[in-house]
Design a protein that fits this description.
Layout lengths: L1 E5 L3 H8 L6 E3 L2 H7 L3 H11 L4 E4 L5 H12 L5 E6 L2 H12 L3 E7 L2 H9 L4 E4 L1 H6 L4 H13 L7 E4 L5 H10 L3 E4 L1 H6 L4 H17 L5
Parallel strand pairs: 1-2, 1-8, 2-3, 3-4, 4-5, 5-6, 6-7, 7-8
Helix pairs in contact: 1-3, 4-5, 6-8, 8-9
Bound molecules: erythose-4-phosphate.
Amino acid sequence: MKFFVDTADINEIRDLAATGLLDGVTTNPSLVAKTGKNFLDLVAEICGVVKGPVSAEVAATDYETMLKEGRKISKIAKNIAVKVPLTPAGLKVCKALADDGIMVNVTLCFTPAQAILAAKAGAKFISPFVGRLDDISTDGMALIADIVQIYENYPDWNTEVLVASVRHPVHIVESAKMGAHVVTCPPDVIRKLYSHPLTDKGLVTFVEDWKKTGQSIL
Ligand code: E4P
């Protein structure tokens, strides 16, 4: 399973890239707005830090403007995935860009039916939002299970399930059990994956006991 980080904060991206565990980045207009930086410059900077796919979203909602924006964004770097919304116009843009060999991430997916359309439009990634479904008392992970099962039935579809709107480590573990291809997570959720109080407690004991030996490995 691939790990993408869901942020536009370049310092967080650099920090997580240094772990060697980061396979890509997803951004959205809200995350870019938080940085206060120029969108095109910021995306270029991120693409220089991470080799894997970097999702950058179009801003318009009409077909013609989205297509122009998508083509412009795609020229920023080879590892760009143009992000488009799951609307009729967005999927039309997806098809046009995918036909030109550009990676497209279709975002704001909330049903299996929408995920089927995205695959048929040639999306490289479909982004179902699990946390936002959980927020309205709907099982977000059930959507992932459905999409994974459907995509497995059609091996000629090359769309990867990119679990988005991830809120906690259980979303990641469940995604892995279901066979989702990618999870995109806020930095703090990725860091939570390392944590267990017994790991911390055990390490304190090992360090103390090692001191008692009076030895040095180096
Ligand atoms: C990523 O592609 C999505 O835009 C993001 O995961 C949405 O997360 P949120 O629901 O926490 O805003």
